[in-house]
Design goal:
Its cofactor is K(+). The protein is about 40% helix and about 20% strand. By secondary structure, the protein is an alpha/beta fold.
């Protein structure tokens, strides 16, 4: 609910020595997915267990089945209610982007970000479509050398459920004073197409900052 990554561990301990999990363990894995957890971490089951490959396969299958019955609508409403009013500026933009994506049945949400916080807030609402986080690198210095930030932020986002980070070209700013980041947006769309997430005639919700204003827009792709 706070938008912080939640990792659940020690869910199928019995698979350290057995080929199948107990019914209670299988239920725990499914409930972790239904409750909105970001990841499931296996420990002894794969470190010293007798069936490491089978454990990963079994847990993966349970997660996939649980995701099929995940009620995104109820989860979204519950999260919005928990946030309460008045919402912060960023929280309002994130929830609006997810609501728009649900209403227009978008195939993906693309979010331009520098720190990754906006993308994590969007992913917090657990939209049924993937969130492509376009991390725009920033140039910074310690007075001895210049470095680009962004790789660390993008890598950290990998733990968040439903979030797929990509690092943009540092020559394009996260905040555009005129128009939109068309070139960066095209790279993000191409990235989605290559991954098989975005197809011709699909709708995509884009969340970005233009000057001092945050914008949520819906684009419809051509052939």
């Amino acid at each position: 609910m706070m938008g912080k990554p939640v990792v659940v561990t020690r869910v199928v301990d019995s698979m350290t020595d057995n080929l199948r999990p107990t019914r209670a363990e299988a239920t725990d894995v499914a409930n972790a997915v239904l409750d909105g957890s970001d990841a499931i971490l296996l420990g002894a089951e794969t470190l010293r267990g007798l069936y490491p490959v089978e454990t990963v396969s079994t847990v993966g299958k349970i997660c996939a089945e649980a995701e099929k019955v995940f009620n995104q609508d109820v989860y979204f409403k519950k999260t919005v209610k928990h946030v309460g009013e008045p919402m912060s500026h960023l929280e309002s933009i994130a929830s609006s982007a997810v609501r728009a994506a649900i209403k227009v049945k978008a195939s993906a949400i693309i979010c331009f970000t520098s720190s990754g916080r906006a993308a994590r807030l969007i992913a917090k609402y657990r939209p049924s479509m993937p969130v492509i986080s376009v991390v725009i690198p920033r140039l910074k210095t310690n007075q001895l050398r210049w470095t680009f930030s962004g790789a660390f932020e993008a890598r950290q986002s990998l733990i968040v459920r439903g979030l797929f980070p990509m690092l943009a070209d540092p020559r394009h700013p996260a905040e555009s004073k005129s128009g939109t980041n068309e070139s960066v947006l095209k790279v993000a769309l191409d990235h989605g197409k290559a991954a098989g997430v975005i197809k011709p005639h699909d709708r995509v919700v884009v969340c970005q900052k233009l000057g001092d204003a945050s914008v949520v827009k819906i684009i419809e792709l051509e052939d």
